[in-house]
Write a structure and sequence with these properties.
Elements lengths: L6 H52 L18 E5 L4 E4 L16 E5 L2 E10 L9 E8 L1 H36 L1 H16 L16 H51 L3 H31 L8 E4 H17 L4 E6 L4 E4 L1 H17 L6 E9 L2 E8 L33 H11 L3 E7 L3 E9 L1
Parallel strand pairs: 7-9
Antiparallel strand pairs: 1-2, 1-5, 3-4, 4-5, 6-8, 9-10, 10-12, 11-12
Helix pairs in contact: 1-2, 4-5, 5-8, 6-7, 7-8
Length: 451
């Protein structure tokens, strides 16, 4: 299973990494450019110093060769004779060992330090021979040290910059994705509470963007879904009401035909009509009950109900049905086991679970009804040792009209509404119902009611 990482976190990591790369690249470019510009400036100063001294020496009187040392003139310049012997100017001992190269500015290392060196050749006076060398010399170490200091400062500041960037970015992203969290929360609430009337809240001053448009679109979609569901429920309710009268007529006529049947064949045909009419009548009754629950119109009289008595009634009502498959029904509920419930609705739920156990139980099997009080809750279980439910179907058995293919054409005319109706009744009580089943071994339904 892939590890969950939120989009907010991924965006924050992405642009923080991008920011780090940009800072490094920009610093590298700016640092390199600054160093090059500083070096070029030093080189120009050195060349300028040599040029100025050369011009002054070239203007001296013929036959006179005197050099008066001036600190301003010789701040980065020194003069050597043709043999490289120091005469005057800025003196650096190790600089005398560097070969002279006329008109070529270059970097040289002297005593572990970097210098820009520039040499110019001057002809000698008429009474002298060999000429002179004028050397410009200036250290670039100050520039290097400044650059290193800047790098150290930046390296110290980078983590702080990235931290501020990450926190600020995460906050901004979180704020930007707040509508998404609202959408997720609303969807979860609708799913958990089955309240299709819920909508995504959109602030009046919300900025108009893609997420705001998404929220509006989803709300419109929920409006349409809610209307469709309401129409479906209304149709179910109306159709069920309209079917009750003709079904009652068919049932009455069928029973009349059974009574006046002349022979066994006619009686068998008439009884078939009655049986099918009863099945349809049961289906309509369940549809009406579900429709009333869905529309919050179901009468609900909550009172203190004796579960032991209720279980006995449910078992007794199912004995004839169980006898057809030689299935024994057992109610194992202690006296004085009570629950706060609507007696009629809870009886219907337990009876349906027993009926379900009989329908899909094995010949000569057993259906056991038991109950117990645990703290402020009452647990009711209906257990059978029948064919069980495959794990692929176990989450779908609560869906209306859902039928497992293997039992779709069973002899009992199951319509796939029984368990859906039981679940709706228990949820109307504020309780829960769960199921555990093993294929070929049996099924256990557990109802939990709050007292």
């Amino acid at each position: 299973m892939k590890k969950f990482t939120s989009i907010k976190t991924r965006i924050t990591i992405w642009y923080t990494t991008l920011m780090f790369v940009l800072i490094v690249v920009v610093l590298a470019l700016v640092g390199g450019l600054s160093y090059q510009l500083s070096t070029d400036s030093i080189e120009k100063n050195v060349i300028l110093g040599v040029t100025q001294v050369s011009e002054k020496l070239s203007k001296r009187q013929p036959g006179v060769f005197e050099i008066v040392e001036n600190e301003e003139e010789f701040k980065n310049v020194s003069i050597y004779d043709a043999d490289g012997k120091y005469i005057v100017g800025k003196y650096i001992y190790d600089a005398t060992n560097i070969p002279f190269k006329e008109g070529v500015p270059r970097k040289e290392s002297i005593d572990g330090k970097e210098y820009i060196v520039y040499d110019a050749r001057m002809p000698s006076p008429p009474d002298k021979h060999g000429g002179f060398w004028i050397r410009g010399l200036e250290s670039v170490n100050s520039t290097i040290l400044l650059g290193k200091s800047a790098i150290i400062i930046v390296l110290i500041l980078i983590p702080l910059i990235l931290l501020v960037t990450a926190l600020g970015g995460y906050y901004i992203t979180k704020k930007a994705f707040r509508p998404v969290n609202t959408i997720i929360q609303t969807a979860n609430d609708i799913s958990a509470q089955r309240d299709i009337s819920r909508r995504i809240e959109i602030a009046p001053d919300a900025r108009e963007d893609e997420l705001q448009h998404l929220s509006v679109t989803l709300n419109r979609m929920l409006d349409k879904i809610e209307n469709l569901i309401k129409q479906e429920k209304q149709f179910t309710s109306d159709a069920s009401h309209e079917l009750r009268t003709p079904i009652s007529v068919i049932l009455a006529q069928g029973e009349y035909l059974v009574d006046i049947a002349k022979d066994e064949k006619e009686k068998e045909l008439a009884q078939s009509i009655v049986d099918k009419a009863n099945q349809v009548s049961q289906l309509v009754s369940r549809l009406l009950l579900l429709a009333r629950i869905d529309q919050n119109r179901q009468k609900f009289n909550k009172e203190k109900v004796d579960i032991s008595v209720l279980s006995d009634i449910a078992v007794d009502s199912m004995k004839d049905f169980a006898a057809k498959k030689n299935i024994s029904l057992v109610a194992n509920v202690k006296e004085d086991t009570f629950a706060e419930a609507d007696e009629s609705l809870l009886l219907s739920a337990i009876t349906n679970l027993i009926s379900n156990g009989i329908k899909y139980g094995k010949e000569s099997g057993e259906v056991l009804v038991s109950a117990s009080q645990i703290g402020d809750k009452t647990e009711i279980t209906v257990e059978d040792n029948g064919i069980g439910i495959d794990k692929d179907h176990i989450d779908k058995i609560w869906d209306r009209f859902y039928r497992i293919d293997d039992v779709r054409n069973d002899e009992y005319g199951s319509c796939g509404l029984g368990l859906s109706m039981v679940k709706s009744i228990i949820e109307l009580h504020g309780g829960t119902i769960s199921v555990e089943s093993r294929l070929g071994e049996g099924t256990v339904f557990k109802i939990v009611l709050n007292n």
